[in-house]
What does this fold into?
Amino acid sequence: MKRIQNPFKWRHHEPEIILLCVRWYCRFQLSYRDLEVMMRERGLAVDHTTVWRWVMRYAPEINKRLRPHLKLAGTSYRIDETYILRR
It folds into this structure.
């Protein structure tokens, strides 16, 4: 049986912090330096290049795991035509 490795092994910061930065970067239009400042305001020393590495490493995996749960936006809906008489 193959063991699944922890993707956060050997990381300096907690997985929650890493995922929070990656989600904020992907969800909102924030720069890596914005995230660096936001983490510094919360008492965490995180460099913007570290956030960039996290995004490059974990964003594709997050996308792969979330994609099946997202609602399709491009689907078409067919509705029968209805006529309403206004007087």
